[in-house]
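Much of what follows relies on a compact textual record of a protein's fold. An example makes this concrete, so a full record is given next.
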Amino acid sequence: MVLTKKFNAIVLGILVILMGILAVGTIDYTISVNLVNPDSIWAEFFNLFGEMPANVGILLSVTLLYGSRKDRKGIMSILVHIFSPLLILLFSLMTVVVPIGYVFEHTESGMPQSALLVGLLIGLALAIGLMVFALKVNKEKIRKFRLAAWSMILLVLGEIILVNVLKILWARPRMRSIDSIEGFNYWYQIQGPTGDNELKSFPSGHTANGFATIGYSMFLFSLNKAWVKPAIYFGLTWGTLTALSRVVLGAHFLSDVLVGGYITILLFLLISRRVFKKAA
């Protein structure tokens, strides 16, 4: 699979055109408001699990890198043995606890301690299982995934950093925070910085994390090249449904999810080129 410069330019051009359309009149506001359905079951599903692929991607990558580590002595070996298990534990807990937190995000009492405890125990069990795998697995068999693992980490951390910096700078009110068109801000209006979560609508972090699902294609390339396109299509579908769910639940405008998704897609186009080229 060759991701040419021409293809990348077309993808970027589509984003520019769409954002230009959403900058005109009340198109962004009107479409977004008419899609809202806070009782949507499928949208709530993607609210809970839509961004999980990003956390799982980091978790998988760190586990593979730790499992394929070279047996060296010295300070680097000590650091690897200290930080790899800590990262595996951290992202195991995040993978389990974050969706539970979303279940109770709009309740007055917040997440019950019992639910938190269950989540922590499941996350701990997951971390232990992955550590056992990393210590027992044949290093040679998984070393072919090292480049994909580093690339996945770069993809997820890159989109998270970019999205959150833009959120702070833009300070755009979320759809659920305004009552009418009078409170609406166009996507190009920068009013930050801010620390208020209700002013962090642009771009959508959920969407950016959801589209990180396309990053799994980099692992599959080393197993069977025929799986790459289906994996990318699945990732794009998952990301699109996650994006739509954010609009349907009133958390974001259409332009928010569009930019959130494109941040991950454009990063993927840049990062994956080396993986596909080197593994070919």
About this structure: The mean pLDDT is 91. The two ends are 9 Å apart (CA to CA). The CA atoms of residues 158 and 267 lie 8 Å apart. The chain is about 70% helix and 0% strand.
